[in-house]
Amino acid sequence: MTIQAFIVSLIGLAILCVGLAGVVSPAGLIALVSNWRPAWRIPIAAALRIVFGVALWLAALDSHAPAALRALGALSFAAGLALPFVGRARVDALIDWWTQRSAGTIRCWAGVAALLGGFSIWAVLP
After folding, report:
1. What is the DSSP letter of 59?
2. Does residue 30 contact residue 100 with C-beta atoms inside 8 Å?
3. Cα–Cα distance between 76 and 55 in angstroms, integer?
4. Which of 52, 59, 68, 100 has the fewest C-beta atoms lying within 10 Å of its C-beta?
């Protein structure tokens, strides 16, 4: 397994676990997201998106789904670059809006995250 595939697997596992936690306990996921230190939200989220995007892009060639991983990698990388320009006020407003959604809506989005995490792991496994 290449270092890129290993990074994709680790971040994919984290996404899978957080997604499953959100499906099981939407209130727990809301508490997790709400308790992030505001000063660190954007830098950490941007850095993770950039690293994940680069790792997806580089791991794509040897994966089970190269086109999908390249697309997800480009999207993640672009989101990581754009996030600091969104600004803290808008990110905080988005988090506030998201935490007001119904438990069913949060479960659906968490399920999508779990599927994305599982897919990324599957795609880079030998």
Report:
1. H
2. no
3. 10
4. 100
pLDDT in tens, 48-101: 999 999 999 999 999 999 999 999 999 999 999 999 999 999 988 998 899 999
Question: How many CB atoms within 10 Å of residue 99?
Answer: 15
Distance CA 90, CA 119 (A): 30
Tokens of residue 32, six digits = 């997790």
Handedness of CA 44, 49, 50, 51 (dihedral sign): positive
65, amino acid identity: A
Task: Return the domain boundaries, the chain.
Answer: 3-124
Alpha-carbon dihedral angle through residues 87, 92, 94, 100, given to the nearest 10 degrees: 180
